[in-house]
Design goal:
This protein is α/β, with parallel strands linked by helices. The protein has nine helices and five strands. A five-stranded mixed β-sheet has the order 2-1-3-4-5. Strand 1, helix 3 and strand 2 (66-71) form a beta-alpha-beta unit. It is globular, with a radius of gyration of 19 Å. It starts with a helix and ends in an 18-residue tail after the last strand. It binds cobalt (II) ion (CO). Residues 48, 50, 73, 104, 107-109 line the site of cobalt (II) ion.
Length: 215
């Protein structure tokens, strides 16, 4: 590779891995041998792809404890085969107990959705966030500060994505079949590291409304 800087940033992760290999080697609990045989996480995390919000570090969990799906602005789009496939595996194969949608304040995707700028192909993805804005336009427009505006939409977007998850056939059928599953909405504060519960937890389809709850 000609570009020295480029080479160095890749080397850094290979070097970094040596520390991890040593850590795994020194572990006496046998958990890495167990993990090599399979995973049994109880948590399924849907977070933003942003590099500042890693699921394990933020939640004090270890490899094997959290099944993770991340995309721009932690969206749960009903026709997204990627999200649906991960969700189906999490619920029907791994039998997770909790699904956590984790947004974060200062989300670039959410901020971008509040402008009329074009950013390229992502504009079509951002439309899903703009749809959330449309539902809550009055509340968001009442806020003048751009940062606060974004952060309000971050919270409302998490709640909307929690609702979207609950109405998927996968979660609906899990509840219909009497399977214990809770869907939570949270927001991360990057500057303090806090994971804030938005108190928008669903554990059944009873409160989802007529057309959204499968019989
Ligand atoms: Co983000």
């Amino acid at each position: 590779m000609g570009n020295k800087k480029l080479e160095l940033s890749f080397k850094k992760i290979l070097e970094g891995n040596k520390g991890w290999v040593d850590f795994v080697k020194e572990d006496k609990t046998g958990r890495f041998q167990q993990l090599a045989a399979g995973q049994h996480p109880e948590i399924f995390w849907i977070g933003c792809a942003d590099s500042r919000v890693p699921a394990n570090e933020i939640t004090g969990t270890k490899p094997g404890e959290v099944f993770v799906h991340r995309n721009i602005a932690n969206m749960c789009v009903h026709s997204d085969m990627n999200m649906l496939s991960v969700l189906d595996y999490a619920v029907n194969v791994l039998h997770v107990k909790h699904i956590v949608v984790a947004g974060h304040y200062g989300c670039g995707g959410v901020a971008a959705s509040l402008s009329r700028e074009q950013f390229g192909i992502i504009d079509n993805w951002l439309c899903h966030i703009k749809d959330v804005y449309r539902i809550h336009a009055e509340e968001i427009d009442a806020i003048k500060d751009p940062t606060e505006k974004t952060n309000k939409l971050v919270e409302l977007n998490v709640k909307e994505q929690v609702f979207n998850l609950c109405t998927t056939s996968i979660v609906q059928n899990a509840w219909k079949n009497g399977y214990d599953l809770a869907v939570h909405g949270t927001v991360i504060r990057i500057d303090t590291g806090e994971l804030l519960d938005l108190d928008t937890t669903f554990t059944s389809n009873e409160t989802l409304g007529k057309v959204f709850a499968f019989k």
